[in-house]
Amino acid sequence: MSQSRKQRSYLDYPLFPRRRRPWRWLMLGGITLGVLAFVGWQWLIQPALHPVRDAGASARRASAPGGKQVVLIRSVVITPTALPDAADDDLVDEVDEVGLSWAEREGRAEVVTYTVQTGDTLWSIAGQFDLDVDTLRWSNPDLERNPDLLPVGMELVILPVKGIYHTVQPGETLAAIAQRYGVAEADILNYPLNDLSTPDDLRAGQKLIVPHGRKDLARPTPQPSLDSPFAWPLVGVVTQGFSEAHQAIDIGAPYGSPVYAGRAGRVVRSGWARTGYGYTVIIDHGEGLQSLYSHMKGEWVQVGDWVERGQLIGEVGSTGNSSGPHVHFEVRVDGQRVNPMDYLPPGGPR
Q1: Are residues 168 and 175 in contact, defined by beta-carbon separation less than 8 angstroms?
Q2: Per residue, what are the HEC states of 45-66?
């Protein structure tokens, strides 16, 4: 006899049957669709964000000093931002390819002559025309030879843009000039005031504006001299020695020459000194020993930086109360100035 089935009444069933809840799957599907839509949108707009460069772009590459690459896109100089041995794509910043042309930019559109007035300095003149001191020097040969030569009544060439005013020499090519100053050839060619139609339009004696061009001084590096308390901070000539009235030594060198830390230590001062020292760096070497470097061109290190012996900390300038391009170098022991020559290698700055 078979077992009878269990009888169920309607009371055995729930009043509201349990329903399956698909929300988890709906949410997962929505997220997946959203990701796919975003990827598709990025793929569609990619050509608009990154237009294809023309095939002649590679021809407009120029080698800058040190093997770095500078690429021109519509007369915009792109400065290197990576080490020379990095990949070419890493050497340039992003550039807006629809930037303004030279003719569309605001500002002066001509070379002018300025007459030095009483109280003028290179820095005040540069600021007046929104330039830098280097541009003034590289536009006026007398200033490049001696930036302190600024008598009242002197006439200065003032460029409309930061860069170099170059005089074409016999046999020079536009490509060679561009390579020398680390810019693209087309940037010189396309600058309106140069009035060049082709690179072959050059003639000896012609003046060219090299927009954003730079002159990099190549100077020898001082010997480390590890057997002396300090190494020489730069290669040059001692122009003034230590005395009671001048408790330091002055080391003369061409404007812009590199200045190095004479000994490892921590930077405790970097900036403009109101005492007539101009741009000044002070390094603390521990045990009460400090070194000071002043009249420099600008700031290269910051307070708190640790620098090694022979590390670049600045460039030779003529800031503050200075009689010419040089570095005022002090050694201090427990706050007292001592003769730096007692701590430096014999034989002079080398």
Answers
A1: no
A2: HHHHHCCCCCHHHHHHEEECHH
Strand, helix or coil for residue 169:
coil
Cα–Cα distances (Å) from 63 to 190, 215, 239, in that order, read 18, 14, 38
Instruction: Measure the CA–CA gap between 166 and 178, rounded to whole angstroms.
Output: 11
* Distance from C-alpha of 76 to C-alpha of 186, rounded to nearest angstrom: 9
Is there a contact between 309 and 233 (Cβ–Cβ < 8 Å)? no
**Is 14 exposed, middle or buried, given 0-12, 13-18 or 19+ CB atoms closer than 10 A?**
exposed
Per CATH, the homologous superfamily of domain 237-342 is Glucose Permease (Domain IIA) (2.70.70.10)
Distances from the Cα of 75 to the Cαs of 187, 212, 270, 284, in angstroms?
5, 11, 36, 46
Euclidean distance between CA atoms 192 and 15, whole angstroms: 88
Domain boundaries, the chain: 58-111+159-211, 237-342
Interacting residues of 193 by C-beta distance below 8 A, sequence separation 6+:
109, 110, 111, 160, 209
How does pLDDT run along the chain (350 residues), one tens digit per residue?
444 444 544 344 444 445 555 666 677 777 777 777 776 766 665 544 444 333 333 333 333 334 433 333 333 332 332 323 333 333 222 323 333 444 334 457 789 999 999 998 888 999 999 898 889 989 998 888 777 788 999 999 999 988 899 999 999 999 888 888 777 687 788 888 988 888 888 889 999 998 877 776 556 788 899 999 999 999 988 989 999 999 999 998 876 788 999 999 999 999 998 888 999 999 999 999 999 999 998 778 999 999 999 999 998 887 888 766 789 999 999 999 999 999 999 987 87
Alpha helices by DSSP H, listed for the chain, are 23-49, 122-128, 133-139, 141-145, 174-181, 185-190
Backbone angles phi, psi at 287, to 5 degrees: 55, 35
Under 8 Å between Cβ of 346 and 248: no
